[in-house]
Write a structure and sequence with these properties.
This protein is an alpha/beta fold. 43% of the residues lie in helices and 16% in strands. The protein has 7 helices and 6 strands, in the order H-H-H-E-E-H-E-H-E-H-E-H-E. The strands form 2 sheets. The chain has a 4-stranded parallel beta sheet. Strands 1-2 form a two-stranded antiparallel sheet. Helix 1 crosses helix 2. The longest helix is centred in the N-terminal third of the chain and has 17 residues. It is elongated and about 65 Å long. The model has no long low-confidence stretch (mean pLDDT 92).
Length: 178
């Protein structure tokens, strides 16, 4: 139905999370209506994202520098660290505007079925961050309520119990008001 070039572009758009056949078609056909300059800028920005975005050396969040904007901010509570599964969780928390501490991104959760062990996660850097400071820290564990989230939480609680940290967890479930 479409020329090969358009079909190929549609297939690539479908690789994006949440993009189905119809949306991929609309996006591809929208390219035909863009100016050549806009298409060039768009394609260059995609390349820049892939080539210039990396992990923050402190927390593991995404950045285009060595250290992310959150870790370098003077307005953050540096004794409060929210441990999250991935960079998408950081973005979600930041959109609320209610959290003013730091983050630590594990880049996954422990999942023996998927072959993900604690060694695959950014846990060593978390321990380093905690052990390098004399200041009391609070660690907020903010994982999804799943078997993997529970497993990772239990593991972190076990290895962090020897450090001077307060460990809290986000609540979840159905509130049972009186």
């Amino acid at each position: 139905m479409y020329p090969d070039i358009l079909s190929k572009t549609i297939e690539y758009f479908k690789k994006f999370n949440g993009i189905g056949e119809k949306t991929a078609e609309r996006l591809t056909l929208s390219i035909l209506d863009m100016t050549s300059e806009d298409v060039d800028v768009f394609s260059e920005s995609v390349k820049e994202v892939k080539n210039n975005i990396n992990r923050c050396k402190e927390c593991g969040h995404i950045t285009d520098n060595d250290i992310c904007l959150i870790c370098t901010s003077n307005y953050r509570l540096d004794n409060l660290i929210c441990v999250v599964e991935d960079y998408k969780s950081v973005i979600m928390f930041e959109k609320t505007g209610n959290y003013h501490g730091l983050y630590h991104v594990l880049n996954g959760l422990i999942s023996p079925i998927d072959g993900i062990t604690p060694d695959d996660l950014n846990i060593d850097n978390l321990i380093k961050r905690i052990s390098e400071t004399k200041e009391d820290k609070e660690i907020i564990i903010a994982f999804k309520p799943s078997i993997e989230g529970e497993t990772t939480t239990l593991y972190l609680k076990k290895i962090l119990e020897k450090y001077n940290v307060k460990i809290t967890r986000l609540s979840y479930g159905i509130p049972m008001g009186v």
